[in-house]
Design brief:
The chain has about 70 residues and is mainly alpha-helical. It has a domain at about 5-35. It is about 75% helix and about 0% strand. It has helices at about 5-10, 15-35, 50-65. The longest helix is centred in the middle third of the chain and has 23 residues, at about 15-35. The mean pLDDT is about 85.
Length: about 70
Amino acid sequence: MLSDVLRHELEKLNRVEKLQVVQMLVTQLAREEELLTAGEYEVWSPYESAGAAAILMQMLEEDRQTNG
């Protein structure tokens, strides 16, 4: 939450200074976002997974036979 002192000081800025503050904050947030998303994450994909597809089809067929 913004303190009253900070809010008061920001309100005293002229238009150009306010834009500079916004630009500085957006730049800082972008850097923080890069730090949060900089890691590598493995994403599993069903492509090239013929074995998994065969198991799923077998399970579906078994379920169809038991539940008619």
